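Same chain as my last thread, 508 residues:
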Amino acid sequence: MTDQAASFVRQNIVEPRRAPVRTTGIVGFARERLFNSPLNIMITLIGAALLWLILVPLVKFLFVDAVWQGNDRNACLEANVGRVVGACWPFVQAKFDQFIYGFYPEDQRWRVNLTFALGALLLLPLLIPRAPAKTLNSGLFFFAYPVIGFFLLRGGGLKGFAIHWIADFGSGFASSLMDAGKQLATSGTTIGHGWLSQPAAWIGEGLVWLGFALVWLIFPLEWLRDYTETFRATLWADVLATAVIVSLIAFFLTGGFRNGWRALFTSIAVFVGIAVVIAVMGLDGGGLPIVDTRSWGGLLVTLVVSVTGIVASMPVGMILALGRRSTIPLIRLFSIAFIEFWRGVPLITVLFFATYMLPLFLPGNFTVDGLVRVLIGIALFAGAYNAEVIRGGLQAVPRGQAEAASALGLSYWKTTGLIVMPQALRNVIPALVNSFIALFKDTTLVLIVAIFDLLGQLRASFADPNWATPTTLFTGFAFTGIIYFVFCFGMSRYSLFVERRLNAHKNV
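reply #2:
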């Protein structure tokens, strides 16, 4: 046994094994992703060559050959510099305020800075998942901040509140309907030409009766408006009357003396906050100096239009998506017609319609600011696209989710708001962010209706002969391109963060 056992003992040392293939770090990434097959090797080499041909000249133009100091165009001319000139950054420095504020008065630009600071201060906690007081922060950002930002940027004060606004608009709209109906009824034979004259007269009489009914409908509000005007503090009387009416409506609609106390106290708290804002900002005494929106421009207009469009289009899209899936034929047909109409019309047409044709449909004594009309048009346009994106997310939610909620006794709105809609939005995060990025870049189309955003201010700055150089054009577009890329890339990366946090890539 000893000899037999000794015969199995190896006399030579075993050869060392080969080192395992490294799969981590830069070397592992290159081996696994870039050079793991002949096709990938070829694609990697072609991509590296393209990056070399693009990035090297770009870096050379923007940094190496760039001019960084100067007071006029002479600093960026090759004849004066004695070398090849790249980007003319003194041009950007000279026009920087114009790119950010447009033609906003220089002594009032602190209002723009304060608006930007308040927006960032309220937005950052919303983007941080573990930040506390999300409900309060959301209410301040989505409801209080737009009002404060409007009066900070535009200035002015309040002469009336909700009752005055509704009464004035309703009376003007009713009178416009009655005047249009009378003209159509009396000139029906001229417009109708024969067999169409009678229907034209009927439509005119219908408009007259509709205006007459609207007059009686808003009569209590007109009486209340006239009654509050007898007080010295007209605005405060209007705010108090509006608070009482809204609070009572919220109280009785949410259960009255049984369950409506929470809505009542919430409404009172909201109106107390409104009163504090009016008092602090001096809106009852004229407020800040008025800066017309035609003086706005640059990054200010870009952010106002894009943020308003993104925020306002989301509730519009959700309502339309739910309406298109509704079992009520009238709601479903209206939602379908609305979505198909806005999706079938170019954004340029929407902007022209909102700017030049919408005033024709408003009462004669009622006007809407040009920028506000553009904001409404963009919000409705983007809402139609978001509606189809959200509808796709709703269809991806299993039907058993709503059935289980119904079996537990939840109402339709609780089922939709707490169970179905959150899952639908989680499923369509990439598509929604894609729509937001597209909308952010499409805001440059407002230049067509004489609203100068960042790109519009850039094009206007090219007309300055003091900075007319061969590289000024490329420098300006490079600067604005960097700004757009930073915002769009930031939205894209944050959406990826939200996807990973919500595990949107998993099929639960």
